[in-house]
Amino acid sequence: FSWCGILYPRASEKRVLMSLDGIWQFRAANSTSEGIEYKWYKNRLSKTGATIPMPVPSSYNDITQEKSLREHVGTVWYERHFFVPDSWRQNGQRVWLRFGSVHYSARVWLNGEEVMSHEIGHLPFEAEVTSSLRFGQENRLTLEVDNTLTYTTIPQGWVEEIETIDGVKKVQRYTFDFFNYAGIHRPVVLYTTPAVYIDDITTYTDVVGSKGIIYFNLTYDGLPDSHNEINCRVTVFDSHAKPVGKATKEDKIGSGFIGKIEIDDAHLWWPYLMDPAPGYLYTLEVRITTNKEDMKIEDVYRLPIGIRLITWSNTSLYINNVPVYLRGFGRHEDSDIRGKGLDLALVAKDYNLLKWIGANAYRTSHYPYAEEIMDFADQQGIMIIDECPSVNTEKYSVSLLEKHLSSLTQLIQRDKNRPSVIMWSVANEPRTQLPESADYFRSVVKFVKTRDTTRPVTAALNKWYSIDHAGQFMDIIGFNRYNGWYSDPGEVEVIQPSLEREVENWHQLHNKPVMMLEYGADTMPGLHLDPSYIWSEEYQTDLLSEHFKAFDTLRNKSFFIGEMIWNFADFKTDQSTTRVGGNKKGIFTRERQPKSAAFHVRKRYLQLAHEI
Ligand code: GCB
What we know:
Layout: E1 17-19, E2 22-28, H1 34-37, E3 52-56, H2 67-70, E4 75-83, E5 94-99, E6 102-103, E7 105-110, E8 113-119, E9 125-128, E10 138-146, E11 158-164, E12 167-173, E13 183-184, E14 188-193, E15 197-208, E16 211-221, E17 230-237, E18 243-246, E19 251-252, E20 256-263, E21 282-290, E22 298-305, E23 310-312, E24 317-319, E25 322-323, E26 326-330, H3 344-357, E27 361-363, H4 371-380, E28 383-387, H5 398-415, E29 421-428, H6 436-451, E30 457-461, E31 477-480, H7 495-510, E32 514-518, H8 537-555, E33 560-566, H9 596-611
Parallel strand pairs: 26-27, 26-33, 27-28, 28-29, 29-30, 30-31, 31-32, 32-33
Antiparallel strand pairs: 1-14, 2-3, 2-4, 4-10, 5-9, 5-14, 6-13, 7-8, 7-10, 11-12, 15-16, 16-20, 17-18, 17-21, 19-20, 21-22, 23-24, 24-25
Bound molecules: (2S,3S,4S,5R)-3,4,5-trihydroxy-6-oxo-oxane-2-carboxylic acid (GCB).
């Protein structure tokens, strides 16, 4: 798997950024191969047929009034034009094109030439495009995007053909419970780097007494073999931009440098409500310079970092040697009209709601979230269980495993420096009752450990502990259970005994910390039925309360480390008889208004924050 850098594009005195977000031209293909057959990338898209304006970033599904576009299976095409100034063509400067994510797979042409392709949604990809660009002229960027899911995609799905009055229709089927939104979901940027550039930075932080230690490993690229004179300078700035530390000695290793920086009386990165200034970030400024007479180049990149230490035992999870208890949610990237398209107003609102309710953590169920969303978590001290896009795996195979590992490679590469990421989740609800899941998850977890040993690994398991084959490989047991909903709907009295027994059993079986990653009840906002009855606001509150009682008993047993409600907000799903306009288990509506339960949860989460 490729292991080169995918640093978030940041402007600096040596790097320029240009956003390609905005309105693009768009057309859905009638058949999956149509666009390629007729070479739609060769000319303006409008030459080969009608196009419609399509916002980027956004899912395309809910933008028009066409049912056929909402339910489209196969390829769609995007195109936009842009200029790059002549001044960008200087000193061998490089230009890169980067997509924050395109779901599910993409092929990209620049001025008719194919420059990159990528598969697996929710993850960034980029390529250097200097040689395909027209400087001082107009450029044409074309994308083919395919949303088809099969048994060897991550996540899995299958396509069925159904007979309709107009003939045969392709329908995408999948067992996961969120709408398979597609399109260019995250920002598109063009950015420059000098000819010799910082390719990647990996940091790891340690805490010893009041001292914070930052270990770094950076790689550069673009230096011709004949020139190996290159220097690097690494400086740390505090949040007021005051320099507070620099590397005393950087060792050159291959095409990179490693070193460490110590900061006395460091302001550590703490979760929300565990410190008056949670989410404290330093800036690691990396500067490389070549010093040969005929090649004087400098590159500068500034990486935000938090200094914190994660450790874990058979019973607890610690941040900076203090045990933490997670209180939060499973979530989705989802909202009306834009689907999974990044919307910064929504992101800011969601973090304000998370803080209002007193949460300190959430899981990026069931795929990696936008980097802009992760930035908020770093800055505000929200702990993240970072999940790869593997959800409801049911047919295990070698090619699936390869893709699964690729998604983890890309995820870890993207998020490895984020202080908010406290754990990797390698899957949601895989079919772990199947014996073949044992080898599969042994390989998955082993692989993660080759990439990162500083964070624990978990998965959201839902098979019963006695038939599950994957829990044995996890550092922390996470499980999903719908007591009083899918089992015994209406009977909240079953919750306490059943939940307490299950948590005890998971712990006894594996001798590891246990957390609940999903529980909840669908709730129609405005439906009031008392005594409580399923789907009413009263029932959601009752069901959560019974869980809270069990959690309180379990917390006294010291191996129970967290509770996460399913879900933060209502979200769209595929059409089904059990979903009314989508999944309604949110404690906020899809428009982010509180249901009654939200006030109840707020009381508990704030109280927990102050008790611990
Ligand atoms: C689950 C899944 C989640 C669903 C949820 C539900 O177990 O992990 O994706 O949305 O149940 O509401 O059914």
